[in-house]
Task: inverse folding
């Protein structure tokens, strides 16, 4: 695609087409505000159901809006936003994740005795930030979007406010998260100092026209720290287990998929457009460290949420492995896009099951609690098994194809050692997922764990995740075709 | 339907009928009897369908038959490419032959979670057949990994005391072994742009693959490690005794009968087919490992107090013969290796069923718990004798043919290999016959053994086909070798070319 810059400030007001290019964000914000306004007006009993429904409608409307947005690709708001196949993909993914999370929180909130309509509003606002991250091509806007998404996540993490662990999670996430976003902002500032611009395309143009200033290296490294924190890549991963353990389970499902997808979108766009030489070694190292530390950490976990936290670190490593190359690889980009989608499906599903099973106060989250689940609740156990098998990367599941594409992209880019580290890791990783399956099917339960009926909304959420996981595992063609078609847009043609 | 039409879809049918059966089984209500009958019908139907393969197989023709090749995914370039030759055809038939017997032998012995058991068994059958019929490396890996889960669950849910340990050990060993194969497959794809076995083989043979000479040894090892763990070749065999002892009878039968053959089949198809030169270079240490496996497996089998463990170690020994035959690169050796695979599947499958029958009656596999059974359960003892003799390699039974061919092949390659391998036959006679003697002859030392019931109808239906097959295969091996011989000849072709090149220099 040719990047044709509208001359700066040639128009005083944005064109109407510009609004269409952020239509999903507008729709989500409007629905978020409706939720906030209605919340005090509806009596407490009805509160949950109605607000949840409105929020769900909001996400569906936003999906529709994304379709409109996709019809008018191009730049908007004085080159701050770029709509193309790449950003449409992440919009759909993030909004779909939000919809599934709303569905799976529906009954959870009642069980946990959390009464707060702003929960749904926060999910919608978070989705606004994340969606904007995927289409923004201007560093300050990216930062603002990042902050919108982060601040909602901080609050969401602390929603089980009667629990000390949840408050701890929220505070930890907030402190470390703001530290990381500060790094990102600092990187933006340095980049502005080095090049005099915050638009990534112009940054690239000014970087190639002159010898690379040292400042640019530092700036990109700082930005990587900020984004690395968001995707929970090692060595910026230490917050993950504690936060995932304390935060409400559906929120963890959200946090481990949507912000990650958005941060990967930014990484893919920013890092490769700016394209500072040597950056791929940083990604290489982060990928290898994340895979290894994540899997080794997960081996010794006894709490399912912590286990899945470490697993999410490892999965961030697999995604990074796809594009640890010197020049923007369309193959690696599309593999990373596919992986984020497949990971979202399986991980959301896993957390949906975990959140239901945890019951009031999230009491049942250790591995021992899962003993004998295969007998007491065969359907729930079977669905969790599918998600876990997908996380291992067993054929017929999305996780298998996702891993396959990632490693195949890495081999194609001649990253043989990284691939070997990766496949070894996926071998090790099989062990801890298998432990859960073993607990469910091969052990008799030793303590009384109440298993309640799966409510309707949650079963819809789980069904969507199962369908997506199996669809991506058996008929990956269509999604893959889309990611391959849109991956090149991540980096404008002139730079490839 | 004309046979031509059927020919193109028969492999798909044979592969997926069990899976379809498993899916239907999920919908059936939990009435154990119906479920058993349904599983039996499905497995017999699959067997009947698979008989189409040898009946209409063109024996003189080399190359793959019953091929189907359809695009599955555009990019990466994955095809749904299936086809069989004389090598894989018999392994498919072996799988479909053993599965109904597994259903029968589990008829009474599995009485809890019956539905889950048969669902897993049928899924496993699909995955196993898929491994042997796939000609696309991706598809092959897909089925290869897919065998892991049902097998691990069969061991872990329906096994004996240390089932979880055995299941996890089995899973981890094979999983970690196979990821290296994945890396090698990905390398091949990255440099050839295809997963198709036939295409890749041609590209490698014509030297069109960039950077191949530098990577070939590693690729060979990547594939080899995955297969060696599965075979299992010494020193990767430690998962096998655990898995066998803890697995339910049907699990052991399929594990020994078919799963181990995935490894030797893989060596034959991929290590020899894709990397003939490397196979030749690495043959010396592979054969030494195979010989160690033959002798070590036999010696360890001899001292086992546990009948099932004895049979498990005998598998290590027998599979050593297969590897020895494959890497002798002689027509006789490879024919023999193929024949041992089939013979071992039938006879060891039978032995595991017989051990399972005894376990159901006494709840122990300890050989010392038995003695003098020949007088109390004569039919059982007679059946056992036939299968033990087949396994020990008595002429006119199936074990003899294969081992003889392997040894003659090994002898052609290097006489010392043949001589060392031949001791394995002696050892196998020793441990099997000694075990037979301790279990069936002498005085009845435990009074409880006097009142054991002999083979029931279901058990006869499960075990006698194995005994009959052992006899037929021993008397008329040409029925099998007729299809194997040309396929093996074709498989050896590239090796022969490599060797003539070496000699020419």
Result:
């Amino acid at each position: 695609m040719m990047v044709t810059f509208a001359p700066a400030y040639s128009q005083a007001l944005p064109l109407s087409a510009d609004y269409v290019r952020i239509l999903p964000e507008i729709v989500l914000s409007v629905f978020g505000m409706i939720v906030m306004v209605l919340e005090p007006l509806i009596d407490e009993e009805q509160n949950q159901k109605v607000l949840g429904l409105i929020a769900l409608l909001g996400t569906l409307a936003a999906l529709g809006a994304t379709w409109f947005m996709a019809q008018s690709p191009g730049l908007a708001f004085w080159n701050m936003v770029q709509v193309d196949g790449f950003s449409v993909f992440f919009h759909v993914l993030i909004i779909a994740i939000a919809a599934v999370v709303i569905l799976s929180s529906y009954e959870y909130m009642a069980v946990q005795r959390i009464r707060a309509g702003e929960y749904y509003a926060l999910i919608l606002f978070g989705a606004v930030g994340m969606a904007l991250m995927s289409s923004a091509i201007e560093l300050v806007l990216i930062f603002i979007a990042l902050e919108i998404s982060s601040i909602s996540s901080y609050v969401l993490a602390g929603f089980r406010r009667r629990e000390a662990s949840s408050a701890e999670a929220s505070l930890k996430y907030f402190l470390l998260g703001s530290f990381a976003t500060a790094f990102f902002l600092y990187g933006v500032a340095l980049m502005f100092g080095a090049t005099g611009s915050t638009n990534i395309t112009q940054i690239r143009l000014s970087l190639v026209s002159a010898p690379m200033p040292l400042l640019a290296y530092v700036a990109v490294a700082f930005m990587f720290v900020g984004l690395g924190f968001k995707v929970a890549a090692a060595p910026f991963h230490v917050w993950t287990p504690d936060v995932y353990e304390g935060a409400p389970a559906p929120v963890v499902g959200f946090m481990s998929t949507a912000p990650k997808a958005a941060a990967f979108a930014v990484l893919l766009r920013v890092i490769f457009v700016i394209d500072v030489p040597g950056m791929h070694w940083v990604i290489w190292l982060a990928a290898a460290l994340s895979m290894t530390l994540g899997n080794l950490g997960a081996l010794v976990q006894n709490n399912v949420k912590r286990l899945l936290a470490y697993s999410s670190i490892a999965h961030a490593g697999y995604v990074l492995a796809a594009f640890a190359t010197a020049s923007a690889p369309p193959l690696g980009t599309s593999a990373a896009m596919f992986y984020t989608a497949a990971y979202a499906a399986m991980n959301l599903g896993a957390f949906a099951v975990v959140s239901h099973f945890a019951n009031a106060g999230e009491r049942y989250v250790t591995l021992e609690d899962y003993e004998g689940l295969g007998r007491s609740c065969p359907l729930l156990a079977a669905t969790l098994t599918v998600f876990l098998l997908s996380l291992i990367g067993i054929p017929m599941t999305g996780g298998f194809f996702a891993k396959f594409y990632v490693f195949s992209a890495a081999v194609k880019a001649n990253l043989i050692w990284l691939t070997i580290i990766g496949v070894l890791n996926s071998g090790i990783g099989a062990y801890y997922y298998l432990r859960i399956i073993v607990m469910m099917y091969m052990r008799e339960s030793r303590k009384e764990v109440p298993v309640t009926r799966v409510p309707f909304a949650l079963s819809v959420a789980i069904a969507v995740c199962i369908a997506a996981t199996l669809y991506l595992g058996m008929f990956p063609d269509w999604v893959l075709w889309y990611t391959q078609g849109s991956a090149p847009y991540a980096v404008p043609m002139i730079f490839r | 339907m004309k046979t031509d039409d059927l020919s193109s879809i028969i492999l798909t049918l044979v592969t997926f009928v069990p899976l379809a059966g498993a899916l239907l089984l999920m919908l059936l209500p939990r009435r154990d009897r119906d479920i058993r009958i349904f599983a039996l019908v499905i497995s017999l139907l699959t067997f009947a369908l698979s008989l189409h393969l040898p009946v209409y197989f063109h024996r003189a023709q080399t190359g793959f038959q019953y091929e189907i090749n359809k695009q599955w995914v555009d990019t990466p370039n994955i095809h749904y490419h299936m086809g069989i030759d004389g090598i894989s055809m018999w392994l498919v038939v072996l799988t479909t032959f053993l599965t109904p017997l597994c259903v029968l032998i589990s008829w009474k012995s599995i009485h809890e979670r019956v539905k889950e058991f048969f669902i897993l068994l049928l899924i496993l059958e699909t995955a196993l057949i898929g491994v042997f019929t796939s000609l696309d490396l991706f598809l092959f890996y897909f089925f290869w990994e897919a065998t892991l889960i049902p097998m691990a669950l069969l061991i872990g849910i329906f096994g004996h005391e240390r089932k979880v340990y055995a299941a996890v050990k089995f899973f981890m060993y094979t999983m970690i072994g196979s990821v290296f194969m994945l890396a090698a497959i990905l390398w091949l794809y990255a440099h050839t742009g295809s997963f198709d076995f036939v295409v890749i083989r041609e590209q490698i043979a014509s030297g069109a693959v960039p950077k191949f000479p530098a990577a070939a040894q590693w690729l060979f090892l990547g594939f080899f490690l995955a297969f060696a763990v599965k075979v299992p070749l010494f020193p990767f065999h430690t998962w096998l005794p655990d898995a066998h002892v803890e697995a339910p009878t049907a699990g052991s039968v399929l594990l020994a009968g078919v799963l181990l053959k995935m490894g030797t089949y893989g060596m034959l198809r991929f290590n020899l087919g894709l990397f003939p030169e490397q196979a030749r270079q690495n043959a010396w240490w592979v054969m030494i490992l195979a010989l160690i496996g033959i002798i070590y497996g036999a010696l360890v089998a001899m001292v086992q107090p546990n009948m099932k463990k004895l049979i498990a170690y005998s598998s290590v020994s027998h599979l050593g013969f297969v590897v020895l035959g494959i890497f002798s690169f002689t027509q006789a050796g490879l024919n023999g290796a193929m024949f041992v695979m089939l013979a071992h599947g039938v006879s060891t499958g039978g032995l595991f069923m017989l051990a399972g029958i005894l376990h159901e009656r006494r709840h122990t596999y300890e050989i010392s718990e038995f003695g003098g059974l020949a007088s109390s359960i004569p039919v059982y003892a007679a059946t056992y004798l036939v299968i033990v003799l087949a396994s020990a390699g008595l002429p006119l039974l199936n074990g003899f043919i294969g081992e003889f061919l392997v040894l003659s092949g090994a002898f052609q390659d290097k006489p010392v290999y043949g001589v060392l391998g031949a001791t394995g036959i002696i050892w196998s006679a020793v441990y099997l016959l000694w075990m037979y003697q301790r279990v069936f002859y002498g005085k009845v030392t435990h009074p409880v053994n006097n009142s054991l019931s002999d083979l029931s109808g279901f058990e006869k239906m499960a075990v006698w086909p194995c005994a009959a097959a052992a006899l037929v295969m021993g008397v008329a091996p040409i029925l099998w070798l007729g299809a194997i011989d040309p396929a093996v000849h074709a498989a050896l072709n590239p090796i022969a070319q490599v060797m003539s090149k070496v000699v020419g220099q």
